[in-house]
Design a protein that fits this description.
The chain contains 11 helices and 13 strands. It is of the alpha/beta class. It has a 7-stranded parallel beta sheet, with helices on both faces. Strands 7-10 form a two-stranded parallel sheet. Strand 1, helix 1 and strand 2 form a beta-alpha-beta unit. The radius of gyration is 19 Å and the shape is globular. The protein starts with a strand and ends with a helix. The relative contact order is 0.15.
């Protein structure tokens, strides 16, 4: 029987797309863990529809270590863990900091306890470009100094990376990859799966697509930044490119290509796109005119950030495949799928 990969937060946006990549490869069996706090169990049926593969699931709260231990007790060998499970809204973290510190750090420490108990040697951690803070060094490399976090969410990612590094130092043979995502967007090209937050989204692209169907209102938070058009600049990266990097990171550790216990990679296209440019890209591919208004700056937002991704290209043999137009096109296809299913 093939070794198992445990994926936490597997019904979520990036987790579900990574499930698809893992199942397509067929190297491992998969245990998908989620408590559906910001996702839906039906997402797994969409994954099965796309891949034609079965996999095991567990509905548990990772803050409960005994439940995590019980859900994995039957597994003889766990080849690795990909840890996505975390709350991720910057505005919500500003409003509810204790919720974010408790959930994001407790789930991580419990998963690492499982690694210690079951001698799991490979670990992929879902981090974020938000750890860099309001840096003036652009493009951002993996050696760019980490600045003060602009939000409690970003701070939990900084602390999370420190925890993984400390754990690796104390546990010989444990190897981890920290993946600092820039701004994951888009949806699976089939249009069968995409970003589906339980609550009102805080991320730009789902707000754009919801606005296009009259289910949301789009606010551009600030047009007075020191950028080319006054709006914030981000490095938008397609979710399928992000998912692909996770399977490559597993291979990287399995093939022992890492020369240190903890490796770090930026995942971005290497190009900055402003909020207003993203809106225009959506209008181009959809043929729709998008209503929006300019609002005040939003607490916790960084002015501009985009990646230098050369290290991931070289070490993981990873190259982003999707353009900003592709990102908007697939996100729009997914929104249209949602509309058809709810009609």
């Amino acid at each position: 029987m093939a070794d198992t990969i445990v994926v936490t937060g597997a019904a979520g946006y990036i987790g579900s797309h990574t499930l698809i990549e893992l199942l397509k490869e067929g190297k491992y069996t998969v245990l998908a863990i989620d408590n559906y706090s910001n996702s839906k169990a039906e997402t797994y049926n969409r994954v099965r529809q796309i891949t034609g593969k079965e996999f095991e699931t567990a509905n548990i709260d990772l803050c409960n270590y005994e439940a995590l231990l019980k859900s994995t007790a039957h597994l003889d060998k766990i080849a690795g863990i990909i840890h996505f499970a975390a709350y991720k809204s910057v505005p919500e973290s500003v409003a509810k900091p204790l919720l974010y510190y408790h959930n994001n750090l407790e789930t991580l420490t419990n998963v690492l306890r499982l690694c210690e108990e079951k001698a799991i040697r490979r670990f992929i951690f879902s981090s974020s470009c938000s750890v860099y803070g309001n840096t003036s060094d652009l493009p951002v490399t993996e050696t760019t100094p980490v600045q003060k976090a602009e939000s409690p969410y970003a701070h939990t990612k900084q602390i999370g990376e420190d925890i993984v590094n400390a754990f690796a130092l104390a546990n010989s043979g444990f190897n981890a990859v920290l993946l600092r995502y820039f701004n994951p967007v888009g949806a699976h090209p089939t249009g069968l799966i995409g970003e589906l937050p339980q609550n009102r989204p805080n991320n730009l692209v789902p707000i754009i697509t919801q606005t296009a169907v009259g289910k949301n209102q789009l606010t551009v938070f600030g047009n007075d930044y020191s950028t080319r058009d006054g709006s914030c600049i981000r490095d938008y990266i397609h979710v399928c490119d992000i998912a692909d990097a996770h399977t490559r990171a597993l291979d990287y550790l399995a093939e022992e290509k890492n020369n240190m216990p903890v490796s770090l990679f930026n995942l971005g296209t290497g190009h900055g796109v402003s909020v207003l440019e993203a809106i225009r890209a959506f209008e181009k591919v959809s043929g729709a005119s998008l209503p929006y208004h300019i609002g005040p700056r939003r607490a916790g937002d960084v002015e501009a950030i985009y990646a230098d991704n050369r290290l991931a290209r070289t070490e993981l043999d990873w190259t982003p495949q999707y353009t900003i137009d592709d990102m908007m096109r697939t996100a729009w296809k997914w929104q249209q799928t949602i509309e058809k299913e709810s009609a």
